[in-house]
Amino acid sequence: MFREPLEWIHKLLDELGVKILKDYQSVEELRDIIAQYRLLPTDAQIALTCRYYGISTIASLDEDFKRVPWLRTIP
Fold this sequence. Notes:
51% of the residues lie in helices and 8% in strands. The protein has 75 residues and is mainly alpha-helical.
């Protein structure tokens, strides 16, 4: 039922060169980022993963990411 649409999506992502990254996992760093930048756990996980992979710009309308010094947001 969902096999064909999923295959189409995977093919499109491959053609566009989109890479799916695994979340970086560090409980201590996650807690630090939550506290230091006053982020929700999911936002802190995104910020931490971006830092780990050297990602400096993300597309987001979430104003909370503006408190994270290593991230720049674009709408």
